[in-house]
Write a structure and sequence with these properties.
By secondary structure, the protein is α+β, with helices and mostly antiparallel strands. It has helices at 11-16, 89-98, 103-106, 152-159, and strands at residues 3-7, 26-30, 35-36, 51-53, 55-61, 77-85, 87-88, 112-114, 118-119, 130-135, 138-144, 170-172, 180-181, 187-192, 195-201. It has a single domain, classed as Alpha-Beta Complex (Fumarylacetoacetate hydrolase, domain 2), CATH 3.90.850.10. β10 (130-135) and β11 form a beta hairpin. The structure holds magnesium ion. Residues 5, 7, 54, 56, 85, 174-175 line the site of magnesium ion.
Amino acid sequence: MKIICIGRNYAEHAKELNNNIPTEPVIFLKPKTALLVDGKSLYYPEFTNDLQYECELVIRMSKNGKYIQEKFARKYYNAMSLGIDFTARDIQQKQKEKGLPWEIAKSFDGSAAVGAFMPIDEEADMQKINFELKINNETKQIGDTSDMLFSIDQLIAYTSQFFTLNIGDLIFTGTPSGVGSLSVTDQLDGYLEGKRVLSCLIK
Ligand code: MG
């Protein structure tokens, strides 16, 4: 399986990191070794001094497909959860300045925390999904998919031009504003449509 991540898919988040609003989706990948599931803790990596959280809606593919048309994309996924796109922001900043790839800042072991999946109702409006991240019980990010620059179905159509999407692949659909730094002992809890689906402790 693979983990496809979308960058800068919410205008307010692009602005908070001083990035331009993209005209096409920004894509990067995380390997399977990045997965952090079942509420496991993340050990603060030694190579960074600025580990940050990005809470994102995660979509799980239920069918294989290539060149999926936007109008049919909805048939290719059937479950959703929340994920944390853990980012070594100091390293990412250096890579961006040099025009180098982001993987060492974003695709390290444990960098893709994923919570429990909820089935998606066939009638659900995917552009009206809300989610929230609390850290140490304080709200840090509030997201609503209506604020996405590219809808989930547009993201699937776009990414499947380049990558065959397989059953079980995950798509991190981008983070809303409010990202920030983490410290050891921080407890992250993610709520999807009001239900807690994700929990992760920084050790
Ligand atoms: Mg992200």
